[in-house]
Amino acid sequence: MSSGCNWGKLLSQNRCKAIGVPWNEQELKAIYELHIPADFVRNGCLTVVEYKKATAELSQLETDGKEKPLIHMKKAELEKKAGELGIQFTPEVTRADLMHLITIEKSKTDASESKLSGSDEGMQES
Amino acid sequence: MAVITSVDFPQLTEEIQDIWNEASRNSIADLVGFQMFNVKDVNVKTYEHLILHGIGGAQKVAQGADLPSQDLVEGDSVSWTQGRYGNLVSVTKDMRLFDLYDEIENLVRSTVDATWNDLDQAFADVLLYGFSSANYTDVYGESVGATGYDGLALFSASHTNNVSSSTFSNIITYSTVNPILSREAIVKEIANARVYKDPKGKSRPVHLDTLYVAPSKEDEALRIVNSTLISGTNENDYNPLKGRITVKTWEKLETRTDGTDTSAYWFMADSKKVKETLQALFRERPSLDAPEQVYKNKNWDWSLDFYYTLGRGFSPYLRGSNSTQA
User: Which residues does chain B have within 8 Å of residue A7's beta carbon, measured at their own beta carbons?
Assistant: First the structure.
């Protein structure tokens, strides 16, 4: 015996935290009573103060010309980013999976860059 | 000494069937879950249910104009998949050889009792585990999902919809959420349900007319509801709940399958609509089938099996409190 709601559809409507993960009462209150955007609630903002702080940090990043965190990127932005990193995907991929794939790819790139810079240093020393 | 031989098999089959039918009839008559849930037969293994949040309705049509399409969005869908359950009821050679008819009869009666009562407990668990969206282990030892069509627990303070950002609560609320059983909490929740609105803000009253309690709370519930005057006070005011609310005592509400004491939990329902909220779907209801062959151990194995699933549908017609006042 099993029952299943349409998690994909609920996620696309921001009515669950992730596939198979419901919002808890505090998170529901933040979204429906305090009208905090779902992505900020996913990131842990449960009060208006926390939300304002997070948006201020985000706009500071934009002012500084830095890239915003993946969690705040729209799916189209994530698709663009994934394309730049050479990740292959189809339109069916979920936003959460894209974020995961980008994180893995970026950590690989960062690791190889630091390895390269490390070997450069080594060469310079010799 | 009489011996039940293969010649007696057709008669024994008939007798066992009679015992099964009679015991089942008696059991089902007492099971509250079977009265509360929408128990129906379906042919499909996975049943798709659509929830439209009660919106739609007629619009003004100008003379000669086409009738407008119903103003509906796709709605929320939920699917319920049936599982198979069963066991064997063995009439052993000893039982036949020594004509232990009393043992055979008790074997069948006990199986009937266990089967229907386990199902009733599975029904009650839908309510008792309904305050959390976490999976739980049901009476058959299976992990069962507890979320409804909106990905939330059966009882939530903020049920969502796909039409607007409005939400509704079906957790009983009086001063706090999940109040203990009291006349004031019942009165308040009746009023809360009466002013229920659909996602577009239109009035869709829910008429709570049935109170479900565990046996421990039966006396208290009956006094609150059925006293001529308001119980527990010196007031001479008449009790408006009398005759308007039916108290149903459900034995299975006393303890959850995991042994948790749930005797303080209480629920209210709109008896005309609660069957939309709580559904029990059977492809095959429990039945006892005679064996078709004799096995090596010479037991005559009657097989008991059934296919069923439980569904959580549109939830404003059922209200619950786990009495935690939080």
Answer: 151
Give the list of residues 6+ apart from residue B269 with CB closer than 8 angstroms, or none: B36, B208, B209, B210, B212, B277, B317, B318, B319
Residue B12 pLDDT: 85
CA A116 to chain centroid: 28
Q: How far is C-alpha B193 from the geometric centre of its chain's CA atoms?
A: 20
Residue of B49, B42, B115, B53 whose CA lies nearest to B82: B42
What DSSP character marks residue A65? T
List, in sequence order, the alpha helices (H) in B31-83: 32-36
Note the pLDDT tens digit of each residue in B115-146.
999 999 999 999 999 999 999 999 999 999 99
The average pLDDT across B181-193 equals: 97
pLDDT digits (tens, 9 = 90+) for B39-89: 999 999 999 998 888 777 778 889 999 887 765 567 888 999 999 999 988
**Closest residue in B to A31 (Cα–Cα):** B165
Cβ distance of B147 and A5 shorter than 8 Å = yes
Distance in Å, alpha carbon of B204 to nearest chain A alpha carbon: 21
Task: Give the pair of three-digit tokens for residue B312.
Answer: 């959580």
Q: What is the pLDDT of residues B298-314, one digit of tens each?
A: 788 888 999 999 999 99
